[in-house]
Amino acid sequence: MRESLYNSRFYSKAKRGFFEFLYRSGVLSAFRHMHRAELLILAYHDIFPTGFPEQNPLFGMTVESKEFDWQLDYLHEKYNPITFQQFVEWFNHGASIPRHAVLITIDDGHKNNLQHVLPLLKKRNTPAVCFVLAQNLGATKLLWFEEAYYRIMFSSKKSLTMRRDDHWSLEDAGQRSKTCGKLFSLFRTLSEDEQQEQLAHLRRQLPLEEGELQFRGRFEFLSSEDLRVLRQNNVEIAAHSLSHPILASLRAETVKREIVESKQRLEELQGVPVRAFAYPFGTWGLDFGVREMELVQQCGFYFGFTGESGFVGRDSDRFALPRISIGRMCHAHFASTVAGALSSLKTMVSVSS
Q1: What is the pLDDT of residue 236?
Q2: Are 178 and 310 in a shared domain?
Q3: By residue range, what is the domain housing residue 154?
Q4: Which of 19, 135, 155, 321 sits at a 20 to 30 Å CA gap from 206?
Q5: Is 165 in the same domain as 134?
């Protein structure tokens, strides 16, 4: 019953109406004031012009370039974007930063960061941090989970059988999207070897037609020269592992390689220290844990960034820093999210109950 309610048109309209109320009533200023001395860190992924399918999981975290343009205007009006160096000086040495400070981060290191993000950042002289997959520089390829999603969404097959003979229907786009979510939840429970076995099993069941990759631009990665251009334009280059695995599921030697070599490769390319790491997927206890945090610290990163929501204070754990993820959302939803209104209201409700 709860799932059907959350997926209903009534719930969607009610949620949007609530966001509009917060946005237009002036209430958000109170929430911004609550967090005025903390740092807001935003996590983006891919920015593209209009035309990418909204309901396809491959494009769930993309933001249209016109929306990103509006969001940057809003951030400059209501907040104060800062550089990564300003953040370092504030966190490490107590230097001052402006109230309502915001640090913009972008994960994965796809080519669109140069094509569609950098021009909009340069228009306003906005700094950012780009977390790069060091193994994929200059390549056009799907990450392991993207390959699985791609096969599920575009295969001509109408069903998929996975572990323990679970039968998943692929009759329509909605069922295919749900199957992508179920697959990722399953992979979080599997060991490194079991994941590879299931991927091979999926490939056998869902072959793809030979030919041009659909939405090819979505899967192009930055080159080493692109990184140089970004650095010259006030974008900090940081690490996001080698291949975007679920770190917590890996053997000790594999997870060490993913973290340590990502730093080494980027430093060799740039000739400067790589100071920050973002945990792939980023959920504490599922995607990373104490082992990964200790490795990030031991190999010389200054900070570790998560996918957990929240604001950063000077007393935050430097190797588990929260970020607020931004995907497809209307203006009111974006404004409410970055103000911390949703997280604050959830906390109030949980305390009162």
Answers
A1: 98
A2: no
A3: 144-205
A4: 135
A5: no
Structure tokens belonging to residue 254: 């594999």
The number of folded domains in the chain is 2
Q: pLDDT tens digits, residue range 43-82? A: 999 999 988 887 889 888 899 999 999 999 999 999 999 9
Same domain, 136 and 222: yes
> 108, 216 in Cβ contact below 8 A?
no
Q: Return the HEC string of 154-221.
A: HCCCCEEECHHHCEEECCCHHHHHHHHHHHHHHHCCCCHHHHHHHHHHHHHHCCCCCCCCCCHHHHEE
What mean pLDDT comes out for the span 243-269?
Answer: 98
Give the integer Cα–Cα distance in Å for 344 and 353. Answer: 14
CA–CA separation, 33 vs 167, rounded Å?
50
Is 3 a domain residue? no
What one-character DSSP code corresponds to residue 39? B
Amino acid at 299: C
User: Shortest CA distance to 149 belongs to which of 171, 194, 181?
Assistant: 181
pLDDT, greater one: 340 or 212: 340
CATH number at 225 reads 3.20.20.370
Whether the CB-CB separation of 230 and 118 falls below 8 Å is answered with yes
Tokens found for residue 296: 């990030």
Structure tokens given for 58: 């491959």
pLDDT confidence of 343, banded at 50, 70, 90? Answer: confident
